[in-house]
Amino acid sequence: MTDTPIAPLRERLAAEGADAFLVKHAANVRYLSGFTAGEDASLLITSDSAFILTDFRYYEQVERQAPGWELFRLTTTLPAGFAELVRQIGVRRVAFESASITYGLYEELARAEDVELLPVKGWVEDLRAVKNPREIACIRRAVEIADGALAALPSLIRPGMTERELAWELEVYIRTHGADDIAFPIIVAGGPNSAMPHAVPSDRPLVPGEPIVLDLGAKVEGYCSDATRTVCLGQPDDRFREVYAVVLAAQQAAERGIHAGLLGKEADAFARQVIADARFGEAFGHGLGHGVGLEVHERPSAGQRSEDRLQPGSVITVEPGIYLPGWGGVRIEDLVVVTETGVEVLTAASKEPVLAP
Ligand code: ZN
Ligand code: ZN
């Protein structure tokens, strides 16, 4: 079941002079219908009907999960079913999600008789950029599980274990503490590897005194969390202390400054200014944050060039970082809910970076 209204999509249909909207992106299908196998279904929404198109494997699941939707049984291909359905209900101008339909599929859909296809972008993503209380509750639970994994870190981490081994221990924690799944492949990156923001865990052993970046998230009822902490086993060097203090100050400045109504790039600027003032500007090469929900990267963006406007109920990461090739990196990432006057920080994991070796 979903409490997601489709009225705003019908308003957009009317404004565009279109008769129907074909939804293909998996997370959008799930968001609107509640059907959890969104990658194997499509939606067709008109001014007065709402169809879900899927095949034999899912007929029963659709009836349970998406009871408000009229099931259109696909017996061959999506383009064949689409052509049949649009003929039956007599729609001509069909908006479709151009970012989620390949050129090959487009060519096949376009063979439907008397149908004009109209590419559109972001219709559902705009709705997903503001979370309702049920969605925030799911995200909160996903955050708590990831916080639990980070709290368990001192008992999981040992010098000499590899990045891969620690990533697996964290994944086991998440999967055995109430998550549906991990939200994305866990990053554990030690020493020079931590200078790569999206490092993949390797067989390199974790060495005392080096920065270790841990980036992880859990999924609850489809909703993701996303958190990063940087730690050091034993005493860090002076550079670690300096870089860590700058990244933490940048994050605090952003969390103090962000509120609804700002553009994503204005949110980014709070942290970027602190890092630039400390002369590490060149070493912060990614955006401050991104929206999180059914997908781990979604709207709104809080990047350097983002024109997305933050709204009350937007859920975004605040994750400044400094990356120094050859030495390593520090990133600290919280998940926050944007409010009228500020943010509520959901992530509660400790930011004390020094762990006993
Ligand atoms: Zn992350
Ligand atoms: Zn992130």
Secondary structure blueprint with pairings:
Blueprint: H1 7-16, E1 20-23, H2 26-33, E2 42-46, E3 50-55, H3 59-65, E4 70-74, H4 78-89, E5 93-97, H5 103-109, E6 116-120, H6 123-128, H7 133-151, H8 153-156, H9 163-175, E7 181-182, E8 187-190, E9 211-216, E10 218-220, E11 223-224, E12 227-233, H10 238-257, H11 264-277, E13 289-291, E14 298-302, E15 315-318, E16 321-324, E17 328-331, E18 334-338, E19 343-345, E20 354-355
Parallel strand pairs: 1-5, 3-4, 5-6, 12-20
Antiparallel strand pairs: 1-2, 2-3, 7-10, 8-9, 9-12, 10-11, 13-14, 15-18, 16-17, 18-19
Helix pairs in contact: 7-9, 10-11
The structure holds zinc ion (2 copies).
One zinc ion binds next to loops.
Describe the protein.
It contains eleven helices and 20 strands. The protein is α+β, with helices and mostly antiparallel strands and 357 residues long. The protein has two domains: 122 residues, Creatinase/prolidase N-terminal domain (Creatine Amidinohydrolase, Chain A, domain 1, 3-Layer(aba) Sandwich), CATH 3.40.350; 223 residues, Creatinase/methionine aminopeptidase superfamily (Creatine Amidinohydrolase). Strand 18 and strand 19 form a beta hairpin. Helix 10 runs antiparallel to helix 11. The longest helix is centred in the last third of the chain and has 20 residues. Bound molecules: zinc ion (2 copies). One zinc ion binds next to loops.
Query: What class, by secondary structure content?
Result: alpha+beta
Mean pLDDT: 97
Helix content: 25-40%
Main sheet record: 6 strands, mixed
